[in-house]
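If your schedule permits, I should be very grateful for your opinion on a structural question. What I wish to show you is a protein chain and, alongside it, a tokenised description of its three-dimensional fold. Would you kindly read the sequence against the tokens and tell me how you understand this chain to fold? Here, with my thanks, is the record as I have it:

===
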Amino acid sequence: MSSIDALANINVQEPKPKEEHPELKKVAKQFESIFVNQVVQAMRKTVTKGGLVPESNAERIYQNLLDAEYSNHISESQQMGGISTLVYEQLLRSQGVR
């Protein structure tokens, strides 16, 4: 068998695309959103309270819900530099996938 025949018989496999793990991506996004929410709440605590009307319980609840929505929006828009991507890669490594 010549070297040309040997090369013709080699089964060239195409590289496998990266395996996607949607459940891990979802968990990583949720983690980023929770992390951003913690950052937003910490920033909110630095703002001095004051004004003519004292803060009510309803206002605190509304502010927490608004902060959660801000956090979700920031997380979805990748404005935090891709924390979810880093968490996703770490989760893959911890699962032994990569």
